[in-house]
UniProtKB/TrEMBL annotation:
Ranges where the Sucrose synthase first GT-B domain occurs: 167-435
The protein's assembly and partners: Homodimer or homotetramer.
The protein's enzyme class: transferase
Protein name per Swiss-Prot or TrEMBL: Sucrose-phosphate synthase
Taxonomic source organism: Punica granatum
Length: 1057
């Protein structure tokens, strides 16, 4: 107990307090009455910070116990629990303080190193001062909301959009999503985000220049949810379609597209969706490719119409959007809604759960990694408030406001950033539909009598449901609308109302706390908050003054706002932290003045609307004073109402969408390069209905490679790709490579006529053979040696010998080896390049096909794949940083401090920097390597391979799994007919190979158990992302034979016995 004297004093006071515990008149005002109860204060004030509801219940039981001996026993047990809780919290706080200090030092060091690399010609702005009108987040500082402020301006903007036919894709995976009668509050996953994404999709679909919007979500066909969530497609009816008739087309508008993934008959929480996200990506890829072709036929002149952007909402959809946008090579946007690092900090502060327990419950580390990947891949991150940027996003490795300002300034001056990139933070508050809202004047009894032209409208049913609680329903209504969650701070509001007699005399309080049937059926946390509210109502005798209805429909929420406005009431949001506060905008649109927390989004909202007061949510008196001021001062109330109605248009959906589309227009367009119309690529008849994108008119995709990727900069921020010298060298290398291939492969393939452009009479299936296979087997087994890999290859070949000879089965070799190492492997094993249809090399950064003339030039490289993955590739700037980092990794125990990691020049390529690892046990884990890269704003994918003896750095959206999706996009490979062979463990990209629409066969015993150390170094357990009990995964026995492999394929339904 040393060092915990304050705990000792509380324990002694609790045990010695005696009869004061039974004083029924005691309250929080005991201090004023001279009878302060340390027990009550400690339990009700101090322990509430721990969210220890069980402890509070123990206190209630102890207080109700009549026997002094039993009561003292209960209190003594409580004392030890309190002491242990406080000790645990202190320990956690100490550990967290150490982590924060370490993180601060790492960020400062990374910032220094990045600044040193970009130290040439620093401007004043880059040194820390403001740069013109560009803020630290890339937004104009001349106005908080750079939006349309007049009808004329909107009409001008609308006229500029005519003729555009944009296709947008939004992704929101968790919760139950439908266009009408949304079940908001049904569970923690079906909340404000569901409403936001549906209304955003609907509003975008009504905007000029937007032809189609798809909102992709999960298809749920579970017995415990409504059948509508199992419908594959749902059209979102526009709210106002008067101006849309001219732009309507066969497939135009906004749609909810439900993609089946995960358990088919279960509705599962978002924490359990992570293993199934690759399956969603594959399904979404199929949908987008099909829709691009359909839209191309309708409005694209026969060329596919690719999405101009893919927008992920929340971490799970951000992870999916990063993979999908990478597979399609289109820009990505991201909205976090609620951020994992912020939630982790809040939970650690409560002291109730350890970091491991938090991760086990919420899968928080996987969520954080998804958010970091979203920062890596996003062009724009959309936030609701500046607070979200300053206090939440700055917690992430991938975003540093100071470094972002330096990079943004250099981009503006067209100066190299040496391979560094930072997403743009755009503040765009959510929108609302206001055209159907008509603010009413008058009070409850002041309605005009009806006549024939304007008959009296009956009061909505929800009004009587609320009014029945009040003894005097004509008093102004203080309205709070929030679920019973501790962070919503409803209990403090009730306390403030109960202890302020003038406020009770002037107003009623209405609490809309979601829907419930019985308290016992609620979650323990929500039930605890509701019970606390009911006890406070009883304590302050607020019967007849507080309403808390059990049920309300989402469609009745506007009626609730109208009732509060008719009584000249006030809307309050007292949450401890409010990321945005959409209910504040809704209330203001109905003419309600606002009282809101000063923490978070309400600060920005109040600055624009100027229609209320900000309060400290921890200050009970501040809440009471603000409410009393607005209710008592009718002139102030009227002024706030008028200001809100005058400025509310700044939060309309058209305003939001205009700003949103303007941001997208600032992104550099990207799409699959071989589909450019300027290359004169025509279309051919497909071999099958599913072959929607088999564009092989230009068979010289690898040989006739142009440098458009270099000239046009397919990645964003082209000024920062590298120095002029390195770019020139890179172009020279590529030109030489093309010429080399041309002299070898081109010369020989011309004899067969394959290089010439195919006409309509030429068979479209000559190249590549991938397109005519019934099944494709991908060998992605990360064996310990080439001999083991050869053994596995022969076994897989033997398992399908008949089909292999017939040509119905093709093979792809997917590995971390270079193409030279693969060639040596084939020669030594007596294999031919033609035995495989493709070679995925260097951990997914290079893609080769077997050449027609395999004697001189056995392989043909797919240069278009490079243009597909080069987004945010740091090039020479990244290489220099990696070399410097490798030099710092030394053996501290060795006298000479031998360097452990060294650059392997011969193994490196333009899109893969390979490093040899001398002492595998002493290198930092992959999560630390990724962290180091992100802190310096370098976006790449680090992969440990070959039993920790090699470390490959490749583009951030390149991987072996992404290369497979590229084959789907480029050649129309059906992913459901793909089989991926892996070992029980493998390289650090192993997890990505198991999930998806394809089948997987795990060859037990094929890889060394030493590879398992790869996965202990990740930030989350491998089990968080591995699909369990998946029907698409089969395992062979240990040290399997070809017959065992055949049996596994039979169990997957690929072949018949």
């Amino acid at each position: 107990m040393a060092g915990n004297d304050w705990i000792n004093s509380y324990l002694e006071a609790i045990l010695d307090v005696g009869p004061a515990l039974d004083d029924k008149k005691s309250s929080l005002l005991l201090r004023e009455r001279g009878r302060f109860s340390p027990t009550r204060y400690f339990v009700e004030e101090v322990i509430t910070g721990f969210d220890e509801t069980d402890l509070y219940r123990s206190w209630v039981k102890a207080q109700a116990t009549r026997s002094p001996q039993e009561r003292n026993t209960r209190l003594e047990n409580m004392c030890w629990r309190i002491w242990n809780l406080a000790r645990q919290k202190k320990q956690l706080e100490g550990e967290e303080a150490q982590r924060k200090a370490k993180r601060r030092l790492e960020r400062e060091r990374g910032r220094r190193e990045a600044t040193a690399d970009m130290s040439e010609d620093l401007s004043d702005g880059e040194k820390g001062d403001a740069v013109s009108d560009i803020s630290a987040h890339g937004d104009s500082t001349r106005g908080r909301l750079p939006r349309i402020s007049s009808v004329d301006a909107m009409e001008t903007w609308v006229s500029q959009q005519k003729g555009k036919k944009l296709y947008l894709v939004l992704i929101s995976l968790h919760g139950l999503i439908r266009g009408e009668n949304m079940e908001l509050g049904r569970d923690s996953d079906t909340g404000g985000q569901v409403k936001y994404v549906v209304e955003l999709a609907r509003a975008l679909g009504s905007m000029p220049g937007v032809y189609r919007v798809d909102l992709l979500t999960r298809q749920v066909s579970a017995p415990d949810v409504d059948w509508s969530y199992g419908e594959p497609t749902e059209m979102l009816t526009p709210r106002n379609s008067e101006n849309l008739m001219d732009e309507m087309g066969e497939s135009s508008g906004a749609y909810i597209i439900r993609i089946p993934f995960g358990p088919r008959d279960k509705y599962i929480p978002k924490e359990l969706l992570w293993p199934h996200i690759p399956e969603f990506v594959d399904g979404a890829l199929n949908h987008v490719m099909q829709m691009a072709k359909v839209l191309g036929e309708q409005v694209g002149g026969g060329q596919p119409v690719w999405p101009v952007a893919i927008h992920g909402h929340y971490a799970d959809a951000g992870d999916a959007a990063a993979l999908l946008s990478g597979a399609l090579n289109v820009p990505m946007l991201f909205t976090g809604h609620s951020l994992g690092r912020d939630k982790l900090e809040q939970l650690l502060k409560q002291g109730r759960l350890s970091r491991d327990e938090i991760n086990a419950t919420y899968k928080i580390m996987r969520r954080i990694e998804a958010e970091e990947l979203s920062l890596d891949a996003s062009e724009i991150v959309i936030t609701s408030t500046k607070q979200e940027i300053d206090e939440q996003w700055r917690l992430y490795d991938g975003f540093d406001p100071i470094l972002e300002r330096k990079i943004r300034a250099r981009i503006k001056r067209n100066v190299s950033c040496y391979g560094r990139f930072m997403p743009r933070m755009a503040i765009i508050p959510p929108g609302m539909e206001f055209h159907h809202i008509i603010p009413h004047d008058g009070d409850v009894d002041g309605e005009a009598e009806g006549n024939e032209d304007h008959p009296t409208v009956p009061d909505p049913p929800i009004w009587s449901e609320i009014m029945r609680f009040f003894s005097n329903p004509r008093k102004p209504m203080i309205l709070a609308l929030a679920r019973p969650d501790p962070k919503k701070n409803i209990t403090t509001l009730v306390k403030a109302f109960g202890e302020c007699r003038p406020l009770r005399e002037l107003a009623n309080l209405t609490l809309i706390m979601g829907n419930r049937d019985g308290i016992d059926e609620m979650s323990s946390t929500n039930a605890s908050v509701l019970l606390s509210v009911l006890k406070l109502i009883d304590k302050y005798d607020l019967y007849g003054q507080v309403a808390y209805p059990k049920h309300h429909k989402q469609s009745e929420v506007p009626d609730i706002y109208r009732l509060a406005a008719k009584t000249k009431g006030v809307f309050i949001n007292p949450a401890f932290i409010e990321p945005f506060g959409l209910t504040l905008i809704e209330a203001a649109a109905h003419g309600l003045p606002l009282v809101a927390t000063k923490n978070g989004g309400p600060v920005d909202i109040m600055r624009v609307l100027d229609n209320g007061l900000l309060i400290d949510p921890h200050d009970q008196q501040s809440i009471a004073d603000a409410l009393l001021k607005l209710v008592a001062d009718k002139q102030l109330w009227a002024k706030c109402r008028q200001n809100g109605l005058k400025n509310i248009h700044l939060f309309s959906w058209p305003e939001h969408c205009k700003t949103y589309l303007s941001r997208i227009a600032s992104c550099k367009p990207r799409h699959p390069q071989w589909q450019r119309s300027d290359e004169g690529v025509g279309t051919t008849e497909s071999d099958s209905p599913s072959d929607s994108l088999r564009d092989i008119q230009d068979l010289s995709l690898n040989l006739k490679f142009s440098l458009d990727g270099e000239k046009n900069g397919t990645g964003s921020n082209d000024a920062s790709v590298g120095s002029e010298e390195s770019t020139a060298d890179r172009k020279s290398k590529l030109e030489n490579a093309v010429m080399t291939w041309s002299k070898g492969v081109l010369k020989d393939t011309r004899k067969t006529g394959l290089v010439e452009k195919l006409d309509q009479n030429t068979s479209s299936s000559k190249f590549p053979p991938l397109r005519r296979r019934k099944h494709i087997f991908v060998l992605a087994v990360d064996c310990d040696s080439l001999d083991d890999l050869l053994d596995v290859t022969r076994k897989v070949f033997a398992s399908m010998e008949k089909e292999r000879n017939e040509g119905s089965v093709g093979f792809i070799l997917s590995t971390s080896l270079t193409i030279s190492e693969i060639h040596s492997f084939l020669v030594s094993g007596g294999l031919n390049p033609e035995d495989f249809d493709a070679f995925i090399c260097n951990s997914g950064s290079d893609l080769y096909y077997p050449s027609v003339n395999s004697e001189n030039r056995p392989f043909v490289i797919d240069f278009y794949y490079h243009s597909h993955i080069e987004y945010r590739w740091g090039g020479e700037g990244l290489r220099k940083t990696l070399v410097r980092w490798a030099a710092s990794i030394t053996d501290k125990k060795d006298k000479n401090e031998e360097q452990i990691v060294t650059l392997a020049e011969k193994l490196s390529t333009d899109y893969c920097y390979a490093f040899k690892v001398q002492k595998p046990g002493m290198v930092p884990p992959v999560k630390e390597v990724r962290k180091m890269m992100r802190i310096q704003a370098l976006r790449c994918h680090a992969v440990y391979c070959q039993n920790w003896t090699r470390l490959n750095f490749i583009p951030v959206l390149a991987s072996r799994s992404q290369a497979i999706r590229y084959l789907r996009v480029r050649w129309g490979v059906d992913l459901s007919r793909l089989v991926v062979f892996v070992g029980e463990c493998g390289d650090t990209d192993y997890e990505e190979l198991l999930g998806g629409m394809h089948k997987s066969v795990i060859l037990r015993g094929a890889c060394s158990s030493a590879s398992n150390q790869f996965h202990t170094g990740r930030s989350y357990p491998l089990s968080d992302v591995m699909p369990s009990d998946s029907p698409n995964v089969a395992q062979t026995p240990e040290n399997c034979s070809s017959a065992d492999i055949t049996a596994s394929l039979e169990s997957l339904g690929l072949i018949r016995s």
